[in-house]
Each structure stands twice: as structure tokens, then as C-alpha cells.
Amino acid sequence: MLRNVTCGELRISDINKDVTLCGWVQGVRDKGSLVWIDLRDRYGITQITLETEKLPAALCEQAKKLGREFVIQVKGKVAERYSKTDKIETGGIEIIPAEIKVLNEAITPPFTIEDDTDGGDELRMKYRYLDLRRTLVRKNLELRHRLAIETRNYLDKQNFLEVETPVLIKSTPEGARDFVVPSRMHAGQFYALPQSPQTFKQLLMVSGFDRYYQLVKCFRDEDLRADRQPEFTQIDCEMSFVEQEDILQTFEGLVRHLFKSVKGIDIPALSRMTYGDAMKYYGNDKPDIRFEMKFVELNDVVKGKDFKVFNDAELVVGICAKGAAEYTRKQLDELTDFVKRPQIGATGLVYARYNTDGTIKSSVDKFYNEEDLKKWATAFNAQPGDLLLILAGAEEKTRKALSELRLEMGNRLGLRDKNTFACHWVIDFPLLEWNDGDPNLLASLAGRWHAKHHPFTSPKPEDIELLKTNPGAVRANAYDMVINGVEIGGGSIRIFSKDLQAQMFDILGFTKEEAQKQFGFLMNAFEYGAPPHGGLAFGFDRLCSLFGGSDSIRDFIAFPKNNAGRDVMIDSPSEIHDEQLRELSIDVRKSVSG
Amino acid sequence: MLRNVTCGELRISDINKDVTLCGWVQGVRDKGSLVWIDLRDRYGITQITLETEKLPAALCEQAKKLGREFVIQVKGKVAERYSKTDKIETGGIEIIPAEIKVLNEAITPPFTIEDDTDGGDELRMKYRYLDLRRTLVRKNLELRHRLAIETRNYLDKQNFLEVETPVLIKSTPEGARDFVVPSRMHAGQFYALPQSPQTFKQLLMVSGFDRYYQLVKCFRDEDLRADRQPEFTQIDCEMSFVEQEDILQTFEGLVRHLFKSVKGIDIPALSRMTYGDAMKYYGNDKPDIRFEMKFVELNDVVKGKDFKVFNDAELVVGICAKGAAEYTRKQLDELTDFVKRPQIGATGLVYARYNTDGTIKSSVDKFYNEEDLKKWATAFNAQPGDLLLILAGAEEKTRKALSELRLEMGNRLGLRDKNTFACHWVIDFPLLEWNDGDPNLLASLAGRWHAKHHPFTSPKPEDIELLKTNPGAVRANAYDMVINGVEIGGGSIRIFSKDLQAQMFDILGFTKEEAQKQFGFLMNAFEYGAPPHGGLAFGFDRLCSLFGGSDSIRDFIAFPKNNAGRDVMIDSPSEIHDEQLRELSIDVRKSVSG
After folding, report:
1. Which of A517, B246, B362, B443 is deepest in the core (most CB within 10 A)?
2. Residue B349 pLDDT more than 70?
3. Rounded-to-integer distance, Cα A204 and Cα A525, Å
4. Is some CB atom of chain B closer than 8 A to the CB atom of A70?
């Protein structure tokens, strides 16, 4: 070993020990008679101190010439520090060097290796190996490691077996887009990378594995958004002989274990909310319940006056922002601008201030008198000092817009603290949704029912009859875990009967032949004694970012891709040799527009 | 939960408890007045017993009609068993059922779900989900799970961080063949799947991660052999500020921990052997040292008589099979046939029996008298009762053939017990080997030096000068861990200087531009303060099969591919939709021969 201690471990009790350390030069301060080197490694920072009058001149000269990020080995003796600091754990000691060896020099990094770096996003992605030197980024990945270890510990204790499922599988173009892999040995044929190990984990249940999990890479060829990556990691789980309640209990247990073991936080038992209530009270299937501010529907209260906007609206709905009656005109204008942004799309915002003196003033006083407005306040159960914010329009769009406004108000009122965690389940999702032309699906799939969760999700037994008459009304035994308004995990009880599975594929627009070709192996497996089973998957990247108090999963992935799906550090994807294309029996199309 | 106990947990102490079990019907025995059901799940087998005179007729009728592999739920009471058995852990009890519910029926499986199944390989692969029901196969995957958990426990305690590296990376056609993934968003460009996370783990060292590991899927588009899979799992590790000795100690510790914690076996400290000695004494860079039987070179002893075969041979070399002098003519003929098989390729086998009466008889008595043969015996240090087996010919080929014969003799003499484990290191590998036209490399790479380990392996400092004059003689700081003649892991100390890395690429026939295009990110990283580092990777599938006492890694992979790289269960690879090809900007070539 080129060292016998790390840069994070020496304490007062180590004084007079002869030690050898290795690390990176964080910085050199030269005060003439004193030279300090801050030596950094993963474990901490240790100060090397040279009193130039006491040490050989050559050694001191060498120390002064060390550049930022040089890799050095220092042999010396541990001494008590003159001016101690408790800012770093080794702040009680320093090293009096006897020898300094430069293991590798370094040119000047393109940005500073500090928490508060001067490097922009693009530069840091290109030099990701330097960005990863920053303590902040490394701590994120240490957190990820710890979460993975604790996840495995918990599931292992619960008798789950980690089973690796294949990465080279088969394309199922009826879901989101697959990444595919041309086969050299089978010309014209392709493997696909898994969007999830769904069918394999169900087969493991048919095999009697009883409890399965895997921390597993999954792949989805989507048009990327800021918080999506083409490859992502799931905590993927499945259990046999269970009902929905058992799954909820088991994985609520996992998340509570993670909060306790990794963050020392006790999370109470998770509350549950139906999908219907989530949409009704929060306009959102993943409501942030760190704060209340539920939707209040106002059609009965506001219609019938001369205000055309409300009279013509399918839905008038609002929220009550506690204690915000003092909002200035400027603040209210900002909120109006916020809801009118194209991505939110409301046409306007109506507000009413319930002043602390008991009066109510609204932006529509022309149409509503004080008595009318009192009725509004009653509907909201508002108190003096509250601010009512109201949107009107087509139902679905208005709920969605109000949901955004609610979250914005939560931010403005400081109700969304990153160190507060509100976890709950959303249950009773619809089984199906109509695909109007989802850009993440092949164009040929538009105008068909699409499985809201996936085609293997079981309808609620009491709703099965509706499959024939009103598929959109069928509820699924499906559930999402939501933490702070983020969907952290989701799953379902699965279909385990061949006939019901066949019926499901029929509703999704598969011909019998297509269903057999794509998923015959699974439907056949159901004939050989399939147990009742269900499971779920957590988005591990997102779980890490939530635990780390960040909105971006990219900060918790060692080598992420950018929004165009590129790894700018290694410059991938890239062209390949003609010899490779020839061996794989494929050509690149000359015209991209084709 | 559909059960409150599993089929493996009830004991005498549970008598009179009311229980609910779920599982698969292993079998039903109907003796008229008594009907027994063996109910199976992952945890064991529990017997359900029906005394037909004491229980409702309908229940008994239902029990008799249950088919093999039906999934049922049984409610009943635990009773003491009349005729106890200690063959199964629940052998002291049985269940008197009150209710049996069929959760799912099963058609007759295509083979029996028993350790000793009647299903052939192909059938079992097609119905892998049924094959996985067999206790034998499930135990293999349970072993794999346990090994993964213990690997992580050990490395976590040693301060290693598990970091996930990307799966969608960049093609480096200078190694073995890559699997590639066409990019939809970047027409004409491709990602590649990693053959190993080599460059990423080195970048993590440049980042100061200090100790990295990952259990990670890797991919290699090779022509497959029985023990190869296109996707395989590695325990991938890297450490900073270490020398070769530190790596050997650390990972010898891992393997000893695994043997101890998973199999309860104490493995002694690992011995070391140079590559040169391995080739000289065993004709093999991964010698099985469960038994001695070292090669003895005989050129000095046997040449100069009238036996042309020996006189003309570049090398005459043999082994001494202890106690095998009594081998019959038939057995010796079998050995001759063995070495003459095309894949071994010897032209013949010379033997000499050192009989227990002290006489020596050889297959070449025409040319060598008793006195000559005594000299042979002396060279081998043979004792009366031993059999000498000798091959002659071109050096490399002859060593290789004798290595095969040695292993065959080890098998025949019972010296290769699967429950005995001999672990050791092979060190000082050559840095380079000449590529005469390796079928696993692109044809255009033939006639060049090829990195024996990989291009990032460091030459021994004392051999660096030879890089210019005699590259083939340069030894690397590279090492393999060998257990029972299987290469279980291998690694090296890495180059960490940009100049040396550039020199290495030059020797491997890269132009400066190619090297920069493929590996510029790594060489640039070396300029920003790269620490000395090294690491290794274990073949996890192979480690599992070794621990499980099997020669085939396929038995330890849940859903393996066959020798043609196909998953016959899901029928993959397969054709994809034209719409997919169009979106990916690729065409399938009409003529495969192109």
C-alpha cells in the first residue's frame, strides 16, 4: 500500500506517529516561513505543515511548487496543530513531512474542485471525472451506495431472493420505445433491452421463487426530459400468494427502513388515497401532501351571476392559501402570469383576499358582492388572512393547472421543505387510458386503449364485467407510492389467468397472433400452475435524489447522459466501423427523413 | 396474505395450530381410506393427510382430483404424523385439512418437476419457468444470491463503494466484438454495450473514489462455447494507491470470506505461480493444482537413440501418473485415442509402466532398453507402480496436449474432487500476444500485437525498456486467480501516465487519431492528477458454478441463452417492425453474405 493512513482518520491520539499519506493537493498556502498543503482524499483533508526554517530547503521548495490536484505521497510525523479547527475532523493535527513524492502531476483543471465550483453544467459533464472529485457529488454517490446496501439488507431479511434477469431480451413495441441490439449470429434479428424485467419476474413467480427482487438497469428510448435518463435503475420486486394489502405493508416497511437507517428519520404509517380523490382534491395522481391546500369545487357557489367566465366553465375550482391575504398586487400578477404560461395554460386567475379585518375583496367584485364572497369563504373554510385562488375552464385542464398553482403556492409559502418527508399510497388507478397519440409510443398505436400501468395488471374483480361495456371505468389493483409529490414507486397485482390475460391483450388491440408471438411464453406459463402474485418497482435514481434533497436524478448517477441522450465525456453514441455494420447485416439509411 | 405459514416451517411444536398454506401439488397418493397430498413451495414440502372416513366426502373427492402442479390453498390443523420421516424437515407433522381451494389449475408439465427430471436440455430451456421449479435449479440461484450478498458485505466493510457505470457506452472495436445499439435521436450513430466497465472504473479512481466495486452485467459478441454467455456478470473492482501485493491480499480475502461464510470452508493463504512456471509445469495458464503431476521435460534423457519421433521433436515432455502402472491395454488405448482427438491433436502417446516388481516396460521397448527406461523413471522421480505418459512434438502444441492429458488423468485417478478447492494466483503474465487471426476479433486486427489482458495494463517497470526492442518479452503487472483449474478472476495494475498509455496504443497499432478518438477521455483524464491504481474482476457466473460444484455456468443463470445465443423460451432475437427500423435509420441487408 502506498499509504498507511487516509486523509480523514488522524486525531490528537495519533500524535508522534510516523505516517504515510497519499492524495490530491487541494491547495498550497505559502507564507514564507510557513507553507501549508491541504491534502485531500475520499476520506477527508489533512494539513501538511512546513516550517521552512526547520526543514530542508529542498523539501520546502518542492512543497511550494506543488500544483492544484497534483497526486502526492507524504511521509512524516503527526503533530498537534497550533491553531486547531473543528471545521474538519482532522482539525486537531497536522503532518510534519520528512519526504514528499509526486506520484503524478496535474494540469490546471477547467473548473475549481469545490462544492461551490465555477464550472458550468456542460463543462462539468464533459469532465465528469473531475466533477466527481467534488465532495458534494461524491457524497451523492455514497448515499446511493448506502441506500442500495440497506435495500438489500431489508429485502434479504424478508426472504426475497435477488435474481438477475436478462438484458438481451425481445422487443415488445406495444409499450414505450425499445432500444434494440442487432444480432450478428442471426442476421436480420434483434434483441431488445428491457424497459423492466416485468415478464421475467412474473415467470419467477410461476417458478415458485415466491419473493424476488433486483436492483436492475432498465432502458427506455424516450424523448428525454430533465429528470429522465435513457438508462435508469429500478428496485424491482415481486411476491406470490399476496393481496394488495401485503404488498403495501411490505414496501412501506422498506421505505420506512431506508428513512430510519440512512437518514435517522421515523416515518409514520403511510396514508392511502384513491386515484379518484387524488385527482379531485389535488388535480394530480401524485399529490404532494406535505401541505393541505385541497381543491374546493365552486360550481354550485359561483354560477348564476353575470360573470360569463364562471358561468361558461365546465369547472370552477380553487385553493385557499392560508395567511396569504396580504399578497401584493405584484405578487398576484406573478401568479396570474404563472398560470397563463403555455405549459400551464389557464386563461386567467381569480382571487379573493379574506382580509384580517373580516372584509373580502376579490378581482371580480364587479360580479360578486360581499355576501357572495362570504359564501366562497365558507366553501373554502377560509379564515381572515387567507387568500383564495380560483381557476375556471374545461375540467381536466383546469385541475391540472390548479395543481401546478397549488405546488407553486406551496413553494412560495415555504410548505415544501426538502427535509420534511410526506409518504403515502395512491391506489385504485384506472386500468386503461385512451391513447390519443402519445409521442413516446409508436405512431401506429394511437387510437387504441393503452394500459395505464402495463398489460399484466389485474382489474379489480368487481370491475371485470365492465371490461366489455366500459373499459375506461375499470379500476385496477394498482398502486403508486408518492413521496413529496414524486412518484417513487408503483406496481400492481397481476393477472395470473391465461384467459383474462388474453382478454386484456384483445382490449389493447392485439390480434390473437400478435399476443401469442409477443407474450405467448407468459400466457403459456399461466397454464402450468401460476400462483396469485403482485409486485412493484421503485425508481432508484429518483429515490436517491429525494433522499439527497435534490430535484435532479442526474446528480445521483455517476456518468449520466445529457438531455439529448449523449454521454459528452466519452462522446457516445458515435459512428461504428463499416466492418461492424457488415457483420451485423445492417446498413445506415442515407436519408434520415425516410 | 393468502397463507400464514410456508410449506417448510411447521414442526412438532406447532401441533393443533390452525394454519393456512399455499403451494403446488407435488403429488397425490390415494389409498382409498387415506389420501395424501404433498404440498410444495420454495421453503419445503408439507404433507396434507385426509382420512376419508373422518372428513367430508366432498373434500376427499376434491383432494383426489387434484392434478400435479395445481396451485392450492389449504386451511387446516397441524397434527402429529403417524409415521414420521426425517427426510424432510416437516416430517414430524401433517395437516388435517378443513378446506382446500384451487387457486389455479395446471395442465400436465412437459417434464417431471423433480431433481432427477425426465426432461431433455432443449425442452427444459424452452420451459425454463418449469425447470426453475426444480429444487436443484432453485438452490443454484439461492446460492448465487447468497454469494452476491456476502461479496457486498465483505467489500462494503473494506470501504468499497458500489457505483453503477453506464450500459449504453461507446464501441471500441479493437477489443472483442461489441454488441451495439442504434440511436434513434442521433441517426447513423450507435451506443455499445460494455465488455467491462474498465475505463469507467479507472475514471472513478481519477475522481478519487479510492475503492470501487460493482456486480455488473457485461456483454461480448463471441462465438459461443458451452460455458460462455453473450451476457455475463462480473464482480468488478478497482483500488487506488495500491501495488499488486495489496490487490492480491484484498481479493484473496474476499474469496476466503466467501468460502467461509457460504460453504463453511477454511481456505489457506493462496500460493503464487508465475505464468512462466504455469506453462512449463502444467502447459496451462490456469493449472488445476488439486493434484501435482507436473510436467517433466525429457529432451536430454530420450534423444539420441533410434526413435525418430523423439529425435525430431522440438519437445519431449511427460507426466507421471502415480499408481497407474496396472492400467490395462484397453485403458492405455483410450488415452492414446484421447490425445489423438482433433481438438487435442497429438500424433501419439508413449507410455512406460514402472511395475511394482521393479521392471519397466514401455511402448517403445524397441528403441529403449531397461537401463534407458530407468533413467526416465529417475527423471520423473517415479516409484514402482507409476505410469509414465509422454508426448512429443512442437513445443507449444505438445504442452497444450499434455495439459489436457494431465487433466484427464486427474479425472481418471479421482484427483479432481468437486468438494476440494485449490486456489492460487498466477502472476507475471506477458503484456502482449501476437494476433494471428483470433476469430473473436475483427479480421482487420490480425497481424498486430494484441493486449493479453487489456490495453490499460501496466508493464513491469523493469521491462518498460523492452517495449521498444522486444514487446513480446515484456511482463505485465497482471494476475489471475485460479481455482481448481478455472480462471475465476483476473486483473492488473494499470497504466496511469498519459505518455505510457499513448505508447501502449502505438504498439497495439492505433494511430494517434484513433487512440484519441476512442480513448481520448481516459488519456486526458490522466493529465489531471491520476493516482496509481489497479484492480480485477471475477467472473461471477463461473464463481457460482464452482461453488455449486458444476461445470456449467448455465445452471446458475435464471434465464440463460443457448449456444447459438438464443433465448428459446421468449424466442429472441427476433425480427422487429419496419416502423422501428425506420425510426432508427437502419435497414437490414438483404444479402447476408455481403
Report:
1. B362
2. yes
3. 10
4. yes
Least confident of A101-110, A247-256, B224-233, B301-310: B224-233
Angle between helices A198-206 and A512-525 (to 10 degrees): 40
Per cent of chain B over pLDDT 70 is 99
Q: What type of residue is A368?
A: Y
Average pLDDT over residues B27-42: 96
Chain B contact present for A497, CB below 8 A: yes
Mean pLDDT in chain B?
Answer: 95
SS percent in chain B: helix, strand, coil, step 5: 30, 25, 45
Q: Which of A2, A142, A526 shows the shortest C-beta gap to B243?
A: A2
CATH architecture of B12-104: Beta Barrel (2.40)
pLDDT in tens, B555-583: 999 999 998 999 999 999 999 999 999 99
* B138 shares contact with chain A (CB less than 8 Å): yes
Alpha-carbon gap, residue B544 to B535, rounded angstroms: 21
Q: How do A315-321 and A296-297 pair as beta strands? A: antiparallel
Question: Which of A133, A2, A18, A16 lies closest to A73, judged by CA?
Answer: A2
CA-CA distance, B585 to B196, in Å (whole number)? 28
Q: Tell me, which fold does domain A140-169+195-273+425-556 have in CATH? A: BirA Bifunctional Protein; domain 2 (3.30.930)
Nearest to B350 by CA among B314, B387, B322: B387
Looking at chain B, the domain(s) classified CATH 3.30.930.10 span 140-169+195-273+425-556
Domain with CATH 2.40.50.140 in chain B: 12-104
Partner-chain contact A564 B186, CB within 8 Å: yes
Residues of B in contact with A586 (CB under 8 A): 182, 586-589
Q: Which residue of B has its CA nearest to A193?
A: B181
B200 contact A CB<8A: yes
Arithmetic mean of pLDDT, B279-290: 97
Contact B528 A173 (CB under 8 A): no
Over residues B342-359, the mean pLDDT reads 95
Interface probe, candidates A213, A574, A583, chain B, greatest B C-beta count within 10 A: A574
Mutation site for B-interface testing, chosen from A163, A234, A592 by largest number of B Cβ within 10 Å: A163
Question: What whole-number distance in Å separates Cα of residue B50 and Cα of residue B57?
Answer: 10
Q: What is the CATH number of domain A291-416?
A: 3.30.1360.30
Find where cell 416515518 sits: A267
Q: What is the DSSP-derived secondary structure letter of residue B40?
A: E
* B562–chain A Cβ distance below 8 A for any pair: no
Pairwise CA distance, residues B3 & A492, whole Å: 19
Closest residue by Cα to residue A198 from A519, A450, A477, A472: A519
Contact A56, A94 (CB under 8 A): no
| Contact yes or no for B489/B481 (Cβ under 8 A) | yes
Residues 243-302 of B with CB under 8 A from A: 243, 246
Give A226's pLDDT tier (boundaries 50, 70, 90): low
As for the ipTM of the complex, it is 0.94
